[in-house]
Design brief:
Layout lengths: L6 E5 L14 E5 L2 H5 L2 E5 L5 E5 L3 E3 L4 H10 L1
Antiparallel strand pairs: 1-2, 1-5, 2-3, 3-4
């Protein structure tokens, strides 16, 4: 079975989640089909754990491969 690609997302709205999320910060999003169908996204937040957040609070970002690799290595 193929491993699902990790997605990088930028937080654009942290209303109600100010302690857990920073606006304009890149986060790692984990695949979660059920959450997606409910309008949510699974994100590794400031606690280092993954939680569900409203999908509308994030924008997926496509980075050039060397930069993407560097970001993922630093995560």
């Amino acid at each position: 079975m193929a491993k699902a690609a990790k997605r990088l997302v930028i937080c654009v709205d942290n209303s109600g989640y100010e302690v857990s999320l920073e606006r304009r910060k890149i986060y790692l999003s984990l695949p979660d089909a059920k959450a997606e169908s409910l309008g949510q996204v699974r994100v590794i937040d400031e606690s280092g754990e993954d939680y569900l957040y409203p999908k509308k609070a994030f924008v997926e970002v496509a980075l050039p491969q060397p930069i993407r690799r560097a970001v993922l290595d630093a995560a």
